[in-house]
Write a structure and sequence with these properties.
By secondary structure, this protein is of the alpha/beta class. The protein is built from 5 helices and 8 strands, in the order E-E-E-E-H-E-H-E-H-E-H-E-H.
């Protein structure tokens, strides 16, 4: 295992391609391994390699977290439809953009398990969210998905070989 003991991931436009899963309507139906449809036919597709990265990190003892600005019920239902919810040790999904506050909750969880802020890496598609978290918690490593890391293979490399 590399220096990082916990990977925290955003959902919208990070784990999946949809920009706002809170705007979708349950129930969700899994169409194939990497695609879910809501009740109106709106598709949500996992990014390539997400499942494999989660499996690899879990196998190497890296804790996994979700930190997302969404409605919890919808985000959790989509994760469940993808059969991914059980990969995550902690899921923090709240209906506001203050990810710095969400990270306060995540770091409380980390401390209770002996994980230091410097052992946490956060990946989000929005530079402003990464910036908000970095200003509040400068010890946390963070990367913007689509810019600093362009694929889940790069996320894996970031976590395992910083």
């Amino acid at each position: 295992m590399g220096r990082y003991r916990l990977l925290a991931l955003d959902l919208d436009r990070t784990i999946w391609d949809h920009e706002d899963v809170s705007s979708t309507e349950p129930p969700y139906t899994r169409l194939n391994r990497d695609t879910v449809s809501d009740s109106r036919g709106c598709l949500i597709r996992l990014r390539a390699g997400v499942r494999e990265v989660l499996e690899t990190l879990r196998g190497r003892g890296v804790a996994l977290a979700v930190v997302s600005w969404n409605l919890y019920s919808k985000a959790a239902a989509v994760l469940e439809a993808f059969d991914l919810l059980n990969f995550f040790d902690v899921v923090i999904v709240e209906p506001h953009p203050y990810k710095d506050l969400m990270f306060g909750k995540l770091l409380e969880w980390c401390v209770s398990r002996g994980i230091k802020p410097g052992e946490v890496v956060f990946v989000d598609d929005r530079p402003e969210m990464v910036g908000r978290v970095k200003r509040a918690w400068p010890q946390i490593a963070a990367a913007v998905f689509g810019a600093e890391v362009k694929s889940f293979e790069e996320v894996l490399a970031l976590v395992l070989d910083p």
